[in-house]
Write a structure and sequence with these properties.
The protein has 274 residues and is mainly beta. The chain has one helix and eleven strands; from the N terminus they run αβββββββββββ.
Length: 274
């Protein structure tokens, strides 16, 4: 495609998203009439140099119980261009899945933010070697619709509270990725909340413990979801055999929990931007 055509198209897409309604924010689900419906998505992966790191969940341990994940710790979705290896600090363009200070869930970390560079824990339970399936993951509560399976009415959670073999149930400090009742997206479950101790259905088979990727580019057996982004500014690395287009994830891009059909913004995908 002619570069003179590509640039105006990208600008139009950015203007569409920047003009999205207030309802299209972190934790909302895509509907067919939404402005971002049909936009192309891609997954970050090690497809060039500098490469796009795989997706990790990590937390900044600032709570009242050092060394253990608790209700005050800040949780991040880590993805983007990094020098490689496990990302053990808060980096630019990481996404806050919980709020901290004036930063809201879904906000991206910038170089000037107060949490940039803070040490994070890339695995919630690095010592639980006897339970290889007891790891973090995205899951839904099957409460909506008339048939079993994920649909528009089902709330989504990040399961992180305690080591647990599937089937999972919600527990204290699990994170609501979508709103549930009066509880907003990005809030953590407390002991007496009505959605605690409720059954969850994982979107993916659990990933390896000790900081392994949570949704690594559909590599997990039985995966039915992925983390993907819309390349809003069109930045790319040189093409290679692994990725002919090789888009770069950076600050202007929009991140989604991408539910089948994959690689396109479609109904019931979840916005992870705020």
């Amino acid at each position: 495609m002619n570069n003179k055509i590509v640039v105006p198209i990208i600008i139009c897409l950015i203007l569409l998203l920047s003009g999205a309604t207030d309802a299209q924010v972190f934790g909302t689900k895509v509907k067919m009439e939404d402005q971002d419906f049909g936009f192309p998505l891609t997954t970050p992966g090690a497809t060039g140099f500098p490469f796009q790191n795989a997706v990790y969940i990590a937390y900044w341990d600032i709570g009242a119980t050092p060394g253990l994940y608790d209700n005050e710790d800040v949780v991040y979705l880590q993805l983007g261009s990094v020098p490689g290896g496990f990302a053990k600090i808060v980096r630019a363009n990481n996404i806050r899945l919980t709020g901290w200070g004036n930063y809201t869930p879904g906000s991206k970390v910038r170089a000037v933010d107060h949490d940039i560079g803070q040490q994070v824990v890339p695995s919630f339970f690095p010592l639980v070697m006897a339970f290889p399936t007891a790891v973090t993951g995205f899951a839904y509560m099957d409460v909506g619709g008339v048939t079993p399976g994920y649909d528009l009415g089902d709330p989504i959670y990040l399961k992180i509270s305690i080591p647990q073999l599937p089937p999972w149930t919600t527990g204290p400090n699990d994170i609501r990725i979508t709103p549930m009742g009066n509880f907003p997206a990005g809030s953590k479950i407390s002991n007496n909340d009505p959605d605690t101790n409720r059954p969850l259905m994982p979107f993916t088979n659990p990933a390896p413990p000790n900081g392994g990727p949570i949704i690594p580019n559909q590599l997990g057996i039985g995966s039915m979801a992925q983390i993907a982004f819309f390349n809003a500014n069109g930045n790319t690395l040189p093409a290679n055999l692994a990725s002919p287009t090789n888009p770069i994830y950076d600050y202007p891009d929009y991140v989604y929990l991408d539910i089948p059909p994959l690689n396109v913004v479609s109904v019931n995908d979840v916005r992870l931007w705020g």
